[in-house]
Amino acid sequence: MVKRCTQYLIVFCLLVSGAVSARGLPELTELIEENSPAVVKINTVDRSRMARGNNPPQYQQEIPDIFRHLLEPRQRQQRPVASMGSGFIISEDGYIVTNNHVVNGADQVKVTLTDRREYEAEVIGKDERSDLALLKIDAEDLSAVRWGDSEELQVGEWVVAIGSPFGLDYSASAGIVSAMGRSIPNESRENYVPFIQTDVAINPGNSGGPLFNLDGEVIGINSQIYTRSGGSIGLSFAIPASLAQDVVAQLKEKGRVDRGWLGVGIRNVDRDMAEAMGLGKPSGALVEQVSPGTPAAEAGIMPGDIITRFDGRKIGVHGDLPHVVGQIRPGTEVPVDLMRKGKSQRLKVIVGALPGSDGEPTQAASRPASSIGGRLGVVVEEIPDGMKQRWNVDTGVLVKQVVPGKPGAKAGLRSGDIIAQLGFEEVADMKDYKSVVKELPKDELLPIRFFRAGQSTFRTIKIES
User: Fold this and answer.
1) Nearest to 383 by CA among 189, 192, 105
2) Among 43, 112, 197, 392, which is most exposed with the fewest C-beta within 10 angstroms?
3) CA 253, 99, 204: angle at the middle one, nearest 5?
4) What is the per-residue pLDDT across 283-332, written as a single tens digit (0 to 9) for each?
């Protein structure tokens, strides 16, 4: 009797264990097998960044030439800087999505498929604000992914990443969605991506790779990790597929992305403000400033208003507003729900085009490419205060765009660099920059000093006739 009960107990435990496993641990082998052929490895080369040997110490310079080679270390061979990342094929004719930071500044982009075929890729377009880039390889009949609806994603859902962490080809990792709509401003304090947060193990090399739901659909593009060691600690962030599809469509159509713009300064609503304004709880975006002549000013939005909905979408915290506005095509008229002096109102606003959009400022879209960025082929602006504090830089101008083939590009400048000196003149601000550039001579090699990630760098630049 005891033996028979024990047998029944064992069978019962196995059944319960199987049920729990079926509900809690999804079977991923088929998903990974079907989608891995559409995931690619990306290797880039940046010839503008070279490893440089050090000058010999002073005491070695005084030694006779015949003996000096015995003490001098061998100089390292100069090599272009290489980097790697991941991407995924979105169409059978060779269009590939990856992160902007994977290919930004690269002279050569090489794509490797799962069957080891390699292709040189053309960069169709890049978008710094969303950290997305669209590539094209000359191939046909390729395996492609299916887009999913990231708007339907919920916290707790299982997701799968496939990519090349640390260069290890086609590695898969799984986890759950930890949070939705994370606001993470970039170095320019811009915030146009409502990131998906997951606990999936994402490491360097995974950037640009796909994040799948359990239906095998891409619902995100792995972009960032939070780390203290350089590796995964369970905080990774992906760009939602809903945003990515719109960006990719614009990059394919015109090589740039036009974003909606309102023209307001905002902050979160605290408990006291919510009570004073007649809100049941803190929510919405408090308008602190409205710039003259902007879409917000023309629509009648005023300082002190609390925007609660925009185009029908709820604004829970102030970071939600740029996410929503940025995805609306310029020229579209949308409703704005707000609280003003304790009363709700609805206004209509015609969304403008964000000045300085990546690829080209909207206002300059009709200008010939030769005129973009002036004599250097570089679009610059004042440095945001947050970037000054982060990199401990007090003066200079921030590079927003570098036109390929122009002097700035040949000198190795990139978006995000801070120009501090041109020729032998210091550049303190935009006024200095315009004045100095105007006086630069042609056909002469001139020094240029700029900061990249807080590090001062000297190069040379030449303005050709």
Assistant:
1) 189
2) 392
3) 170
4) 999 998 888 888 999 999 999 899 999 999 999 998 899 999 998 988 89
Burial class of residue 76 in the structure, from the number of CB atoms within 10 Å of its CB (0-12 exposed, 13-18 middle, 19+ buried): exposed
Name residues of the chain where pLDDT drops below 70.
Answer: 1-24, 47-81, 187-189, 356-372
Within 10 angstroms of residue 408's Cβ, the number of other Cβ atoms is: 28
Host H or E run for residue 380: strand 378-381
- The alpha carbon of 61 is separated from its chain's Cα centroid by a whole number of angstroms, namely 47
Facing residues of 19 across strands? none
**Token pair recorded at residue 296:** 């917000």
Is 246 buried (19+), middle (13-18) or exposed (0-12) by CB count in 10 A?
Answer: middle
Query: What class is the 146-252 domain?
Result: mainly beta
Residue whose structure tokens are 């939705």: 180
Tell me how crowded residue 147 is: count the other CB atoms within 10 A of its CB: 17
Matching CATH number, 33-136, of 2.40.110.10, 2.60.40.10, 2.40.10.10, 3.30.70.360: 2.40.10.10
Catalytic residue list: 101, 131, 207
Place of tokens 């990139």: 414
CA dist., res. 391 & res. 68, Å (int): 40
Which residue from 210, 182, 178, 211 is spatially nearest to 194, judged by alpha carbons?
182
Distance CA 50, CA 44 (A): 14
pLDDT in tens, 162-215: 999 988 888 999 999 999 988 887 766 677 899 999 999 988 889 999 999 999
pTM (two decimals): 0.65
Q: In angstroms, rounded to a whole number, what is the distance separating the alpha carbons of residues 444 and 377?
A: 17
Separation of alpha carbons 293 and 298, rounded Å: 7
